[in-house]
Batch of 4 targets.
Target 1
Amino acid sequence: MFHQLLDNPNRIEPGPLQAAARKQFPDVVRRSHLDFFVAGQHPRHSGKFVLIGIAVYSPRELQLLDAVDASYPDWRGIAEVAVFDLMECKDPRDVLEYYLPGPPYRLSSLGFRSVPQSPIVGIWDGAVLSALETGLYDTQKLLRNERLIK
Amino acid sequence: MSVAGIGGLQLQLNLGGEGEEADCINQQPPWVDLTWSIARNGLPLSTLTTAGVPLLFCENTNLCFPDSIIDTVYTNGVPLDIGTTWLGPSVSSGEIKRVLKSGGWWYDNGVPVFQKP
């Protein structure tokens, strides 16, 4: 589903393909088991909340969302998963300010002062940011440990 | 590793490359550093250089190659012509077309999307 946003059977140039994918991304999220996270929104205050920021131009990151969506039966009722398009951010500070709100010491204690790579995955337990990873390899590992992907 | 343009070999460029395409110069933009992790294995980019895989840092919008010198360009999961990302400018298709040789191909995520006339 998500990965189809970048299917390119007509071999069009990637720029227009990526622009169209970004435009369609919110609709695909609405058709999935994931929620669309709006800049400035706050993570929910109870239970487990998982926020995934991806680069919509990356097929592998779209496949990651497909994997999370496919595992819905495993996390239904246990976690709430929301996603956003990192391209909405204009610089690394935007990511922290609008999508990972919270005390800076919390991010520092998790080893982050900025968001260098995509995707990004944050996990909150009862409104406390408990884990944060960036980069495809480390985020896949975190999601696998949390049983959000197989 | 053989990289080309040297001794008549093919000169291949992987923009945003992390060594996933064989026999390429892997370009990264200036804001990337060698501690960043490689998507497929989580190892730092420095492991590429220590393994002898060519890594080149230059602006996405100003590739440091002369016109019409590259045989093949690869782009895999990189932003193209979509303005500025949260880290910096996206890759420019105009630059890709400038550096490609006549007859050279551009492959995006494995799909041949452009051949330079």
Target 2
Amino acid sequence: MGDMEMNTDLLVIGGGPGGYGAAFRAADLGFDVVMVDQLPRPGGGCLHRGCIPSKTFLHLAELILDARGAKRMGLGFAEPHLDLSAMRAWKERVIDKVADGLETLAKRRGILLVQGQARFDSSNSVRLEGAEYSRIRFKQGIIATGSRPLEIPGVPLMPGGRIMDSAAALMLPDIPQSLLVVGGGYVGLELGSVYGAFGSRVTLVEREDRLLTQVDADLVQPMQHRLSKLMTDILVGVELTEMQENDEGVDVRFTLAGKSERRRFDRVLVAIGRIPNSDDLGLEHTGISLDTRGYIKIDDRQRTTDHHLFAVGDVAGGVMLAHKATREGRVAAEVIAGQKSGFDARAIPAVVYTDPQISWCGLTEREAKAGDIPYVVQKFPWKYSGRAQTMGMTDGFTKLLTEPQSGRILGVGICGRNAEGLISEAALAIEMGATAEDLALTVHPHPTLSETEAEAAEIFQGSPTHMLPASK
Amino acid sequence: MTSSFRLPDLGEGVHEAEILALSVSPGQSVREGDIIMEIETDKAAVEIPSPFSGTVSELLVKVGDMAVVGDVLITFTTKESATTDNSAAVPDTAAVDTGRNQRPVPASPSTRRLARELGVDLHEVTPSGSGGIVTKEDVESHAAKKTDSEPATSEPEPGPPQEPAGMQPATGRTGLPDFAKWGEIERLPFRSIRRATANQMTSSWTQIPHVHCQDNVDITRLEAFRQKHKTEIEAAGGRLTMTLFAMKAVTTALKNYPYFNASLDLQAQEIVLKHFFNIGIAVDTDHGLLVPVIRDVDRKSIKELAVEVDGAITRARAGTHSREEMQGGTFTITNAGALGGSQFSAIINHPEVAILGLGQGRMQPAVITDERGRDEIVPRLIMPILLCFDHRVVDGADAIRFLRLVIDALEDPDELLITMI
């Protein structure tokens, strides 16, 4: 700690996927880069509090559910034994491995990693708190400070308390007998699934009248059906009125269909959304402007209203996804290097890692209807897929949204096993401007789930192989 | 509390400026309207008054920096409670897909990147792929067509200044050898007037098919005339130079051949004839080439012009000229004679159609035929003259006629006076 000042070409604030995406690209383009993050190691919320730790546990949850499901195929396992401390250690090892990799990549590129909280004191400098340097001056800056879980007003989250946010839930403090998940978005569904598979009685409540409100309802339906067996209760249209933590548990009062109910839970997970980390950055000392919800305003080149400052990832608004942040970071670095780069992705795939998974990209039916965009749907149910049958996963489907005349693929939605892996072909098809014909004429290996995408495209052609055409 | 002073929009086509001088320092209090800095844009220095009253908190630029419109240059602490800035004048950046309500054009990500790099709007490209897909080749051929047919007056892009092809550094390394291997080198910034000149010359040379006509003018009589009237013009505060006579002679020629007083508008597919005669004079200054424009030359006497030209040249050399003074020309004259130059060539001052060059008048043997038909070799003062023209707008025959008219006027002061009437 001291009064040391540092100068750099490019300062990146935030070490998550947006920040390191930008820093790595900028370093490769010849810039002198400093990356500041509050956490001791790079990776940001994604690596330390989100994507990676949740997928570590979701993998274990999937093993449990698959082992259970194998019984009807004639393969029986004993009930799983959960060694929580070993599971936590496993998760930490995964995080460490990835952080090691990021650190090596940063060091080999000559990027200086600084731990501390950065706040602007001018448009070209930040003050650092808790760091070995007190101030960094820079020519250009990229803000990639991400977002944090939104709290329920009046419900404080105490460290170690029974009311948790997603980061606290991923610490896996215990397996509560009963868990209330507040929020039917992907975080609530994923972590609710983890705790459900690990043995908690999970009640999930959502204020809106359905789960995953941004996803087409038909994609949600098979997932919700399966999840209703894993969870005790999935309640929608719920208004929370009171939440009180005490020694025995958390007393929750809510109204459902006009009736007030009171229940006690051992723990509560609050997953009602995220808010941008733009409020404690000293942005008032810059020319940056925020929108009404606190996101930094940017143009299609990631430039803020203060033109040598850029913003990427969650803090810059749009969908809050790591891969979108990384691309934005790379765009910002390229623009800073004078390239005519821009963010113009047409398909940002999204994945919900429930069992079954849901993934989608490009246009959704909701958006098409709202935007009055003409489209037709081709839906291939997985019960016609041999591979889905072998896995006993036949309740999913693959659907394409195509332009009526040309058959141009506008959007794809998948519900089913490994939807995460299947969506990338769809993203490539949309980005390339491919048509259903292109997809249908691409030979897909048999038997795989990827065939369902080609079969859906064949429906557009009027002649799918593994189901009857509509005319027969 | 804090106000940011941003580089304001400086007018059409000006995206950036060099900071020439800063007249304030941190801690200094300023009143609205006080001059806070001097900047140079497009070959002219401009003093910038403060839009705020308050205390300077930080200077974010230093002398010599290049700033882009919208950049924060100075921050102030002001008494007003709200955080303000002068950014209202800064245009918002357009989206990649112009026209948000237009449907996206099917094209692969790499094709879209290429379009962005070449400044091509995908909606304007004729697709060759199946079902209207735009390919890389489509974008390339569209861009080639565009540069063929479009003058540099294309819509200015917000942000980085648009420079003609050939002025843009290749991304990445320069492609130049490491000169330091062979001896000591110095690298100087390529900025300000030098860069503006380079921009202007590149767009002129790459867009205009230039043709030169060279000739000689016998200015023996004109020089005698000039010597005779020199002192009276000096008394009036001007300088009677050969350029002045050339300005008058050219104006007469322009009236006779209006296509030389024109600009080509390729976008509109029209030739713009200008019914005013504003002549630019190329001036060599310590900081580079400047072309002040003398307006309405046809309506001014030689004496008036002498005073005005002298004033414009003095201001250009002192760097006190305004941006407006450098704009609006319809034809340019460059006189290499004063520096001792004889034969040379010239580049048209785009988007004008022609430029006249004068060399140094030198005593030379000339063959004169007297009234009895006898040839005689006599010493005469001969000045090289050249006309360079845009062959898209005018043809060689008219150029020769144009130049002949100028030569005739310059060879015979009486003729010059008569044509001026």
Target 3
Amino acid sequence: MAGKTNEGNNDLVTYTLRLADTALVLGHRLSQWSSYGPTIEEDIALSNLALDLIGQARLLYDYAGAVENKGRDEDALAYLRDEHAYLNLLMAEQPNGDFAVTMVRQFLYAAFMHPYMEALMRSKDETLAAIAAKAEKELTYHLRHAGEWVVRLGDGTEESHARAQAALDDLAIFVGEFFVTDVLEDAMIAADIAPDPATIRSRFEATVDRVLGEATLSRPVFAAHHLGGKAGRHTEYLGPMLAEMQVLHRAHPGAVW
Amino acid sequence: MRAAAALSPDLARARAAIGAVTDPEIPVLTLDDLGVIRGIRQDDEGRIEVTITPTYSGCPAMAAMALDLESALVAAGFADARIRTALSPAWTTDWMTEAGREKLRAYGIAPPERATRRALFGEETKPACPHCGSHATAKVSEFGSTACKSLWRCETCLEPFDAFKCI
């Protein structure tokens, strides 16, 4: 098992936790839509996407815990770390807002993460490559679903167009972070464990341009203004979300049902 | 799981025991039909180990599948059997058996077509209606009652139906 040979590789643990936290935080955000969806089909769709992301997070936490080898399992990693120990992308923690915000956030995430996971399938780390192979299949239909909604909202009514454009303009400031690496990630890239996000930027932009074009939405500037998620510096929204997500486990450690 | 060369009597008995275990959410399919059982072996101490692969990362049925396999093995006398999960190679609906596809159709679920790589807005193959066989069908939602199904409607017989997604 790869976990054995990499035991104690702290950079690998951190890198894996970043991927896991991003998937879990976004998955939890989507789960907040359960029973609030605009139609029953969409309610099921959002819960389904949440389930995939939380499933991907579980596989990643399981692996991070095995490599770390300090006895932390997926529950300890998800429920017993505070806000500043979370290493997710800031995009993932942004509040659901209206339906347009949720769908634009999902679209931008999937437009990046789908080619990213495809590249991670070629990782020298066998476990990450195997997890990426599962995630990539799921992100294919996440991207399709969110992309179709962005087109329907943008090319829909005056109201839905305005809301989709506002969502895009608000969330644009978190796109730059997708492509910014630090020393730790650079080392993972050099070791052929992590893909270099710069290599997928053109695919991300082509997807965004195509969908925004069909949606009649104008593309805002994707500058790297808001950074810090991968280092544990978050926007004001993550803390309250984690409080709600973690309270049961912390009040009743080890509870099962 | 296809027939292998000479099995030890224990292994043959264990394999027969798990061969009857069905999917917790689609009970007409066995786990064999679904293609999630990737191997069965017996270690030097005689313990049976079954390898399964998850369908979807977050499929809530995986825990139930592992438990059902374990129960079947215990009932067959293998109290210390182990279920191992392997992620790679990733499960694909192409591993579903022909018998499984037929059972699904008879149950009212359109079986998966061969998995293809579909672009963002590429045309998708429409499943035939499992009730009347018509190809005039329309997608209602890409997401259905379980992670592995989508919702469709037949425009010939007007019946709604579930279709197994291709991944």
Target 4
Amino acid sequence: MKRVKTVLFMVGIAALYGAGVTGLYLSTKGTVEQNKKFVKQKALVELFGLGDIQTLSKEKIAAIVETQIDQNETLTDPQTGEQIPLLKAYTDAEHTTLKAYGFEFKGIGFWAEIKGYIAVDASLQKTVGLKVIAQAETPGLGARIEEPFFVKPFADGLDISKPAPGKSYIYMGIAGSKPDPGTPQYRRTFDAITGATQTSLAMERMLNASIAEFRRAADNRKAGK
Amino acid sequence: MMHLLVIFLAAAFTENILLARFLGMCSFLAISRQLKTSVGLGFAVVFVTTFTAAINWLLHTYVMVPLGIEFLELIVFIVVIAAFVQLVEMIIERFSPSLYFSLGIFLPLITVNCAILGVSLFMLNKEGFGFWESLVFGFGSGVGWLIAIVLMAGIREQIKEDKIPAGLRGSGITLIITGIIALAFVAFSGIIK
Amino acid sequence: MAFKDTLGGRALIGNLWRDNPVFRQVLGICSALAVTNLLKNTLLMCGGLVFTAALSNLTVSLLRKVIPKQVRMMVQVLIIAAYVIIVNIFIQAQFPEIHKTIGPYVGLIITNCIIMGRAEAFASKNPAWPSLLDGIGAGLGYSLVLIIIAVFRETLGFGTLLGIPLPGRDIWWYQWTIMVMPPGAFFMLALVAWFGNAYVLKKEGGAK
């Protein structure tokens, strides 16, 4: 009898608290989704430089994303069959001048998943920006992948054309030292974060994987045309 | 087979849950005074990490994802861990009362040992992990923790405590030793890409 | 009876320094290492911990006569986890900016040995009001130690406090990266433990 009472108590209290958490989750689900969508929109506006996110209102940012960024085309990686949505950012709503392309990258960092976007120029061979939208790395260390100093090499332009056989698309480098022209790392290096080796290595891994996928898909698109 | 061995070695050494990710410190610092107790606690942790990693993988794959209730994962995982620790407590109390007594509060505290919950959460992040990979990953992580605590206990038993200033004895000196070992392990972090 | 002589009073005051959860009871170490490299995150974590410790101690104490012995750990952890997750979901919806900072620490609060340790050692055996005070005391004792460590780590590792650069930073500050990484936390915590333990021993030695 005592055993039954124990089990009943356990089930009862689990049900009570489970219901509490589930109830709150469901009631806030809409708001949380909205927040996530807004974070993504803000990130895209910032990535492509389509407006000052500090001064623009929520509605204005949403409008910019709706009208100036075309998300209709999807590239296919011939090797894995993976679908990669291609973002096209224009300077205005009439789509007269193309500003940049963009695609998503994601992978596992030191603690959890890191997600973000890479912006590339019209030739699809050079980066023009990087924006991380989700990460849970160590604050003050790995989390610095969101800071300007980390993003700068990508904004200045890294070469993401097909490298020599056996070489990588992107290399992790030591801050302050610049690779010489002629080496495989030239114009393909981003600065590692001191004290955050694992996060920096993870970024190198996932960026190489995502860029390789994109390269295959983009070249396939070109060949298809 | 080789692939499982690699997972085991990575979990126990290069991704050592205590020395590389700094989880599971509380009981590590408090219990590592005595080698015998440390071995006992270490084995208890191995037992819990192995089985909870496996069970949590099964729950995640066959219950939580199909039902779309991943948001409850944190609670479910930790209750599973708690259930297992309760089981371990009953076993130790029955078979080794001296170990039960020397572990004291740190036996129930295995429940909230961040290392064990960490193992279950990290296992979810690993791509392509099936049941056996998760089990081996849990086993390897537990063994890594066991190695770390036995290492520390071995060092502490050799220290002449009377040469250390009174305030630094106990947790103080252990923290410094752990800091030095942690510094050494930082050197390993670039080895396996 | 003066406050400091009541069961609750003794629990709260004891937990602040003499039985400090961090360097005397050796609890809450994981989070002490993880969050103290930035003062802002430390303050948020401490706030979360005082709140959770007080609330969970209160609940466990109120239910202590009802919880069967065989499932007490599961129940305690369920209560702790449920409170933390409820607060987390609420913050995620209402204050997404704050959630971005403390999101990763949710797991660290649930598995914080202090909360479970005090629930098991004190709240499961004592009445509600003293248990609440014990929880608050444990949280405050933890906060005290962490704030001291964070002030040193952020100052030496980043040259800022709460994100604000310190005056004269360009002149005297040189980056001690090791302070931002875990080994720096170990050494700082050891120093605080040394100071704290020596002080407590001296006081006890003097009283004898």
